[in-house]
Amino acid sequence: MIYGWLVAGFFTMFVGLSMAEICSSYPTSGGLYYWSAKLAGPSWAPFASWLTCWFNMVGQWANTTSVDFSLAQIVQTIILLSTGGKNGGGYLASKYVLICIYGGILFVHGVKNTLPVRFLSILGNVAAAWNIVGVFLLMILIPIVAPERASIEYISTHFNTDNGVGIQSKTYIFVLGLLMSNYTLAGYDASVHLVEETKNGDINAPRGIISAIVVSFIVGWGYLLGITFAVTDIPHLLNPNNDAGGYAVAQLFYEAFKSRYGSGVGGIICIGVAAFAIFFCGMGTITNNSRMVYAFSRDGAMPCSSVWHKLNKNEVPINAVWLSVAISFVMALTSLLSLVAFQSMVSIATVGINISYAIPIFYRITLGHETFTRGPFHLGRYGMVVGWVAVIWVATMTVLFSLPVAYPITRDTFNYTPAAIGGLLVLVVSWWVLDARHWFKGPITNIDTTMRTN
Fold this sequence. Notes:
This protein has 454 residues and is mainly alpha-helical. 67% of the residues lie in helices and 0% in strands. The chain contains 18 helices and no strands. The longest helix has 38 residues.
């Protein structure tokens, strides 16, 4: 975790810098798919924007699903621990109750996203403050409360190979561990989708992309360092028979307070602090999704486009909000059939979104190299180098995240990420060849240059 976060954060910054440069030149809420169209040239513009948008949009829906479903699991764990824990007769919600909790969270997020943009801005500031203050609270409090603390040597040198999934190679474990770091650091395109609602968007949106990565990188690494000081028995934390049912972080918080004070209430409160941070994150993903749907339907590229780009009296694309809520709920229903199927669908949240980031960057450094017009924020002569590093990083991660995560490989342990991503690619390309190429001619959204001074 400690070194993987540094690696993922370092290369993620290359992706963010390239996106920020392109965003400054083309500040529109369509963002990625509009960039691809402008940079791919007239011949490739329609298909490039089509492919980029659907990878980003489906990835964003999957991201909402993964964030809010994980929040529902945390709520389930809080209920379990509050009623006595798994070993004390606590209540463990069934998968059907879990889906109901998830649906309730999604509904609340949908309602909040129908509020005027100024309220969303206030909630965004509250979310940022909560995340920073909450993280610093946990990274200091948990190591202090924990009765046993790991040494610096243990934290910086120990590799856990007792994982129960048949993987002993430290290098392989390290590579697989990059997935969670990359997943956590994704989603920084939020500023892009709100650029048309942002003053001086061609300057402030790129700043938003970069600052999101920088703050997440610094604070996230501090959080990892803080909680790992309290970790001394990893297999125990991962054991499904512990009080938290195998939810490692929840067990860590709960056990730290219970061991020192005889009660795990403080630990449950700490879990709640993390839960609220995830709640705010989920709310933001719905905002991103709805703006992407709005922009794409505004260009006539969605089925029933006229419905999804309508604004309510608060200037919010309300139909796009509830479409995103509905699709994310349907995605989570796969968990009732198979957790393997659900995990495969959620894998699109990391791989799919990163692919959509890489496509316009790739066109920026290839077909669009000569025609690219710099905006107020640019990388100068380093733009090409940064762009190539970003594309190679995404390509590498796409391959690594498709590797098996457990051995021996069976139907229940197979990594279905390649099938999920490949299936999405086949579906999108087939739709294009058979139908969409006849009516979708690329983004029609025009960027008024007065946006840069409003």
